[in-house]
């Protein structure tokens, strides 16, 4: 049963991640100034694939645990916000609004991590890399705003 749940959670992750294909960075993002510490382009799909597997495993583990209702609700919230950032930042080119979405995503990921931890410690631990990555993404979003004030809206 846990494998079926894992597949369902993984499908939700890749549905959120599909916004990257619908709203690719493109020429607009390529022209923007970015900080020296910007991860290389090849790292993004590798990181997100790894994170989605961890997120799905965490969701599946928590789904079979008692007292999981808050963790499952927060898991749903964070994946919705995860899927929202790409259309806002790359689709609408709204960098400030993207940062707001990332702030909400960071808070929801942190809350999900804590809620998961309370029902299954391994599920909580599986969310730690995700929180780190979202922190880096928020710092990168802010740096791009600061380096491109003419484009920031």
Concise account of the structure shown:
This protein is an all-alpha fold and 153 residues long. It has helices at residues 2-17, 19-22, 26-31, 43-63, 69-91, 95-119, 121-126, 128-147.
The percentage of residues in β strands lies in under 5%
Q: Which regions have little confidence, pLDDT < 50, spanning 5+ residues? A: none
Q: Helix- and strand-based class? A: mainly alpha
Biggest pleated sheet: none
**Helical coverage, percent range:** over 70%
Could you state the order of secondary-structure elements as H and E?
A: HHHHHHHH
How far the N terminus sits from the C terminus, by CA atoms, comes to 46 Å
Gross morphology? elongated
**Rg, Å, rounded:** 16 Å
Average pLDDT confidence is 96
Counted beta strands: 0
Please report the number of helical segments. Answer: 8
């Amino acid at each position: 049963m846990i494998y079926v749940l894992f597949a369902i959670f993984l499908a939700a992750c890749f549905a959120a991640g599909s916004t990257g294909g619908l709203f690719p960075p493109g020429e607009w993002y390529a022209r923007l100034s970015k900080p020296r510490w910007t991860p290389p382009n090849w790292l993004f799909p590798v990181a997100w694939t790894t994170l989605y597997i961890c997120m799905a495993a965490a969701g599946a583990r928590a789904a079979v645990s008692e007292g999981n209702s808050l963790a499952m609700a927060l898991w749903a919230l964070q994946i919705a916000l995860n899927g929202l950032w790409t259309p806002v930042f790359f689709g609408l080119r709204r960098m400030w609004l993207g940062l707001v979405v990332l702030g909400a995503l960071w808070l929801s990921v942190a809350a999900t991590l804590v809620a998961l931890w309370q029902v299954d410690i391994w599920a909580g631990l599986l969310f730690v890399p995700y929180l780190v990555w979202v922190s880096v993404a928020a710092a990168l979003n802010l740096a791009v705003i600061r380096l491109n004030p003419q484009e920031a809206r």
